[in-house]
TrEMBL record:
Transforms N(2)-succinylglutamate into succinate and glutamate. This is Succinylglutamate desuccinylase. Its EC number is 3.5.1.96. Pathway: Amino-acid degradation; L-arginine degradation via AST pathway; L-glutamate and succinate from L-arginine: step 5/5. It catalyses: N-succinyl-L-glutamate + H2O = L-glutamate + succinate. It comes from Photobacterium leiognathi. Residues 56-248 form the Succinylglutamate desuccinylase/Aspartoacylase catalytic domain. The lineage of its organism: Bacteria, Pseudomonadati, Pseudomonadota, Gammaproteobacteria, Vibrionales. Binds 1 zinc ion per subunit. Belongs to the AspA/AstE family. Succinylglutamate desuccinylase subfamily. Residues 261-334 form the AstE/AspA barrel-sandwich hybrid domain. The keyword Repeat does not apply. Zn(2+) binds at residues 65, 68, 159.
Length: 347
């Protein structure tokens, strides 16, 4: 059984992660006329037979962190449905299972956090850098060869949190210099019943930021529950998201709507780890979005104390074990948005 044979049978995930199967690029056409192209291991491009007037170019990525398995299962389900003829997308898709080696090792990454490696092309000092470079090339090519006259570019990068959360699902809207916060993107958040959205306030080097900054994509990092092994994910808890993703790829467009069901946060500050003395005052399993009243001691770094800001703050992604110079936590506050063609913060 070849790599391509496995994928044609709908086994995109198993083929991607079976490193004993040599990867060979391939393309073929389904009975429906859908054009399938294997561009890289774990990168499958889908092109509908006919382009609609409201065409989107949509990147759906998973496995940037190898142990975040629920999103990988969702991408596998979507790929299988398309490959076996059960699902017919009306938009161009790039389906990604990003890091098979990390998936096989059941770990976030091998040597370096790959979701910090999308700012520029990396020196290929390890497998994480090599894969990040390959993914940048794949996205550049996908957006660069669009067949639509004025394509609307999207990128949903799917993850799971490594800790519990006050919001089981939430999205991070990366900060970019492009118009990458459309009302259609935020309508998707509501259709998918994502519980909260966090608006970043500085450029980053994440995969979704890469697509927003360099390609003007409507981009989100979406956290779907908590890390678990394959087979132990309760995908029923992600049913709303799965249905919305299906509608995103199979319907011309989703209704534009916003009724404030989604909690909105803004980043108030970013805590960077500057020394090996960095520490938090709270336990490692503290849930994301835990709120601290004004004046509460949060931790310290080289003698500098971190104190909860005026009117209090919540913490997201706290991790004292990151590399020096990397983000150890985001401190956030609730906010409100102005729902226009491009989303803006109130005040």
């Amino acid at each position: 059984m070849t790599f391509v044979d496995e994928v044609k049978r709908g086994r995109f995930l198993s083929a991607t992660c079976d490193l004993s199967l040599p990867f060979v690029p391939a393309d073929w056409v389904l009975e429906s006329g859908i054009h399938c192209q294997l561009l890289q291991r774990g990168v499958l491009q889908i092109t509908p037979n006919e382009q609609i007037s409201t065409a989107k170019d949509i990147v759906l990525s998973s496995g940037v962190h190898g142990n975040e398995t629920a999103p990988i299962e969702l991408i596998q389900q979507l790929a299988e449905g398309i490959l076996l003829g059960h699902i017919e997308p009306v938009h161009r898709l790039l389906l990604i299972i990003a890091h098979p080696e990390a998936i096989n090792h059941k770990t976030r990454f091998i040597e370096e956090n790959m979701n910090r490696l999308f700012k520029v092309r990396n020196s290929e000092r390890n497998i994480d850098c090599k894969v990040a470079n390959q993914l940048q090339e794949a996205v550049n090519s996908f957006y660069g060869v669009s067949t639509a006259v004025q394509p609307e570019r999207w990128h949903l990068d799917l993850h799971c949190a490594i800790r519990p959360s006050e919001h089981y699902t939430f999205a991070i809207s990366p900060y970019s210099h492009k118009h990458s916060r459309s009302n259609s993107l935020f309508s998707f958040i509501q259709h998918a019943k994502i519980e909260a959205v966090l608006l970043a306030n500085d450029p980053s080097s994440t995969f979704s930021w890469f697509s927003a900054e360099y390609h003007g994509a409507q981009a989100l990092t979406i956290e779907l529950g908590k890390v678990a092994d394959f087979g132990n994910n309760n995908l029923a808890l992600l049913a709303h998201f799965s249905r919305a993703m299906m509608k995103l790829v199979t319907e011309n467009s989703l209704p534009i709507t916003w009724n404030n069901d989604v909690e909105v946060y803004r980043v108030s500050r970013t805590l960077l780890k500057q020394s090996d003395d960095f520490n938090f005052s709270f336990p490692d399993d503290l849930p994301n979005f835990t709120f601290f009243d004004e004046g509460v001691y949060l931790g310290s770094d080289s003698g500098e104390a971190f104190i909860a800001d005026e009117k209090g703050e919540a913490v997201v992604f706290p991790n004292a074990n990151v590399a020096l110079g990397q983000r150890a936590a985001l401190m956030v506050k609730k906010a409100h948005i102005i729902f226009e063609e491009q989303i803006r913060l109130c005040g």
